[in-house]
Structure prediction request, 229 residues.
Amino acid sequence: MNQKRITIAIDGFSACGKSTLAKDLAKRLDYVFIDSGAMYRAAALYCLNHQLIQNGELAKEEINAQLSAIEIHFELIQQEPHVFLNGTDVSEEIRQPEVAGIVSIVASYKPIREKLVEAQQKMGKQGGIVMDGRDIGSVVFPNAELKLFVTAKPEIRVQRRLAEMEAKGIQMNVDEVRKNLAERDHLDSTREESPLIQVKDALVLDNSQLTKEEQLDWVLAKVNLLVTN
Ligand code: DC
Prediction:
């Protein structure tokens, strides 16, 4: 039987495990996985490399003039999605604290959002996609068949982010991580342009007490209901 290939939109705060869930789901369903945050991080890296942000202020005119020179795409390398900025694999670089420190400011700039949203919508045209971010269910795919809003207790998110950074060989202090997450939560949910919101038709998944496998099974059960009906 040919199953419907749906669009799955996953939103939530930073370090809630959205990308892990999205990646696991895409593997199990043989869907495309897009980490939209990686695209904003790549745009932020571009701004850093070209001195387009100083003391938290964006050089808006220069960014506007260079927008068409920013090319971001994904490639699968040994089954893992890698993000490329103007032809260079920046998957590692975009996880550095320097990028995390400015990405919310870059992501709040409308022309950057418009450019990336357009690219994201193109990638999702055929369905069979799992995308995670902050505005996926509200702006990028408002008609997604399945929308999830993922949450976890703040201290659990701090521990997860610390473990993720440690696995990448980046040592961070717990207070620094707590502060960065709190600042980003605030900026992401209070900005004017497509703030993070919990849309009415999203299912809420609090994964504070769930293992990766348990949360995956929970979502797969919801997907099964949608694709077989
Ligand atoms: O998910 P992440 O932490 O890698 O996201 C990086 C930043 O990009 C985060 O501060 C919010 C922003 N972002 C966004 O504004 N919209 C998205 N769809 C995805 C991420």
User: Anything to note?
Assistant: Residues 7-210 form a domain with the Rossmann fold fold (CATH 3.40.50.300). Residues 14, 36-37, 40-41, 103-104, 107, 133-136, 184, 188 surround 2'-deoxycytidine-5'-monophosphate (CB under 6 Å). Residues 88 and 160 are 28 Å apart (CA to CA).
